[in-house]
Amino acid sequence: MTVLLLGAGSDMAVAIARRFAAAQYNVQLAGRHAAALQPLQQDLQIRYGISATVHHFDATAYDTHTSFYTSLPAQPDITVCAFGYLGDQELAQHDWQEASRILHSNFTGAVSILNVVANAYEAKKAGMIVGISSVAGERGRQSNYIYGSAKAGFTAYLSGLRNRLFRSGVHVMSVQPGFVNTRMTQHLTLPPLLTAQPEQVANAVFKAVQRKKNVLFVKWPWKYIMLIIKSIPESIFKKLKL
Amino acid sequence: MQKRLANWGNYPAITSEESAYTQEAQLRSFVAANHGFIARGNGRCYGDASLGKHSLSMLKYDKILSFDTAAGVLETQAGVTLDQILDIIVPKGWFLPVTPGTKFITVGGAVASDVHGKNHHREGAFSGHITEMDVIIGDGTTVTCSPAQHTDLYWATCGGMGLTGVITRVKFGLKKIETAYIKQKQIKARNLEEVIRLFDEYKHYTYSMAWIDCLQKGDSFGRSILIVGEHATKAELNAKQGQAPLQLPSKPRLTVPFNLPSFILNTFTVKAFNWLYYGKNFKKEINNVVPYEPFFYPLDAILHWNRGYGKAGFIQYQFVLSLDQKEGLIAILRRISEKGWGSFLAVLKVFGQQDSLISFPMEGYTLALDFPVRKGLFAFLDELDEIVLQYGGRLYLSKDARMKQEVFWKSYPNAERFAEIVKTYNPGKRFESLQSERLSI
């Protein structure tokens, strides 16, 4: 079995790569800085005795996505879409560069590559797609609605894809990690009870993949928090400082 | 991220701004852009050596870079812990060249503390097995150093408590083993005289150390259990062990889930524990073959055992005195036994010779014991420091959280030279810990 990790440089992706490698999956690591992935490649091979490969992948270089996928040494059984960019909300409100980077890294890039993967999986009637989305996409809030809207788009895309591919026997899983202690969030102070370690996310993803879960909330309170947040009437919600 | 940090002794505990990176380029730019921080590993040194207002956690810089299974050479990033390494190398027939009493330390920490193990008298400290390493120095560049290149940086980094820079990559030699087991011998010694004699009698063993009961007086002063061992050969295993000689039998882990109230540890309970511990060996001598884990890491079996000392934390006091200063050892043990504040067990070991710049070990006796933090403790330890100084000894910086700066400067013969090299690679105190501030290094 082979798992492809798109955006393999993130802390969450490293943990996911190790979890699957520990279960003897071969791992394909894809990211923008391929050279930076080589230590991880060595690490996975030495620790787990599996085969790991490194591939250059740029989420926003859309026209390369088909050739990227078809030139992989083996067709992956599972594709994990783990790239993303949190960005700076305030900057993005004024600076289109930042806003567009957030939108493209989190949404358009994911749609572009997963379209390719989905078509390949549909054709062979096998495979699984795991998309790491975010609870931020459940409802737009003033503090991060640009990132949130991109993730909302991604979440909707994944649910549509799940619907479409069901008949082909291809499973699509959406992951809502909640807060995770990673480099992306190291400047934030996060509530410990709602914050997962990357290894916890990896474990949860691995288990959920075995069980073919549709939507995974890594820390269970998030499911209910988001239910509550979504049920607040807009007339009240718009007055809140969230 | 603001984080509450303390090392294994839970003293001192501070709030620190912690950063972590997974790429060397990120580490380099962090170093170039920041001041007054210290790199830290798994927080298993006891005192304040890896604590700072700003800290750079290396735990995510944890990739294994190469493993030559034929020659037994391992190359890792600094944040890999020894327990992860053991899981990889032991099944392939290799072992750590030197290991301290816990496997939950990082490779970077092993270098920064220049850790020693039960085999110091035969195989030296960790620094003796390094082929080369990378250090990011004060200007944000990476320098590769070894006993042959950039030797001043190399020797000031081994045991240098992270003050020369951020250790990022270490390549070191491993030791060939046939099995994951140790053939051990435990010998009861009635008193200090006897255990010192036994150390000498058994010095040809690769591994040796003794548990010593510091609370005994009179004839039993210094009663101990000497434990020596060798890596077992396949022929020495029983049938069951022999089925998978390089695999450890699996065992559940215990933990101390929260800080115990400190009144639980008093002279009475400590005495009772020591009595049981000493008494459990009915025979004068026990010989058996045990997995390497309980032999090297008896306390790792109880996760968070440090919480047993309560919220105020504890100080592990470890000193070394040269072989001809046995009276010093006796004098200190007497003070400890009179005071009755000591821990369950203390560890006594004889170090072999070591040439180093700033590493702790030197040929002689080393004793390590825990003292729960309480009123009057620091004054008492200052008195012990005086005796250590008087007999030409020194304290282990990895355990230290409180010694006065003059004790450091008087006891480490190369302190001046070390400080000079630190200044070269770390101008303007870019790398700074609570310890380096306290000791004014």
Task: Tag the structure with descriptive keywords.
A: alpha/beta, Rossmann fold, 7-stranded parallel beta sheet, 9 strands, B: 441 residues, alpha+beta, Uridine Diphospho-n-acetylenolpyruvylglucosamine Reductase, domain 3, Alpha-Beta Plaits, 8-stranded antiparallel beta sheet, 5-stranded antiparallel beta sheet, 26% strand
Explain what this protein looks like in three dimensions.
The complex is a heterodimer of chains A (242) and B (441). Chain A is an alpha/beta fold and 242 residues long. Chain A contains nine helices and nine strands. Chain A has helices spanning 11-22, 38-48, 65-70, 89-94, 96-124, 145-165, 198-211, 221-231, 234-237; strands spanning 2-6, 26-31, 52-56, 78-81, 128-132, 171-176, 179-180, 195-196, 215-217. In chain A, the strands form two sheets. A seven-stranded parallel sheet of chain A has the order 3-2-1-4-5-6-9, sandwiched between helices. In chain A, 45% of the residues are buried. Chain B has two domains: 64-177, Uridine Diphospho-n-acetylenolpyruvylglucosamine Reductase, domain 3 (2-Layer Sandwich); 181-402, Alpha-Beta Plaits. Chain B has helices at residues 24-33, 82-89, 107-112, 120-123, 151-157, 192-201, 239-243, 267-279, 292-296, 326-339, 377-390, 405-411, 415-425, 434-439; strands spanning 2-6, 13-20, 37-40, 54-57, 64-68, 73-77, 94-95, 130-136, 142-145, 166-173, 175-176, 181-189, 207-212, 224-231, 254-255, 285-291, 302-303, 314-322, 346-351, 364-372, 394-395. In chain B, the strands form five sheets. In chain B, strands 16-12-14-13-19-20-18-21 form an eight-stranded antiparallel sheet. A five-stranded antiparallel sheet of chain B has the order 5-6-10-8-9. In chain B, helix 10 (326-339) packs antiparallel against helix 11. Chain B is globular, with a radius of gyration of 21 Å. Chains A and B meet through helix 2 of A and strand 2, strand 5 and helix 2 of B.
Q: Note the beta-strand portion of chain B.
A: 25-35%
Shape of chain A: globular
The CATH architecture of chain A would be: 3-Layer(aba) Sandwich
Q: Any idea what the radius of gyration of chain A is? A: 17 Å
Count of helices of chain B? Answer: 14
What is the name of the CATH superfamily of chain A? NAD(P)-binding Rossmann-like Domain
Give the mean pLDDT of chain B: 93
Order of helices and strands of chain A: EHEHEHEHHEHEEEHEHH
* DSSP strand tally of chain A: 9
Q: What is the CA-based Rg of chain B, rounded?
A: 21 Å
- What is the fold-level CATH name, i.e. the topology of chain A? Rossmann fold
Query: Which stretches of chain A are low in confidence, meaning pLDDT under 50 for 5 or more residues running?
Result: none
Helix content of chain A: 40-55%
Major beta sheet, strand line-up of chain B: 16-12-14-13-19-20-18-21
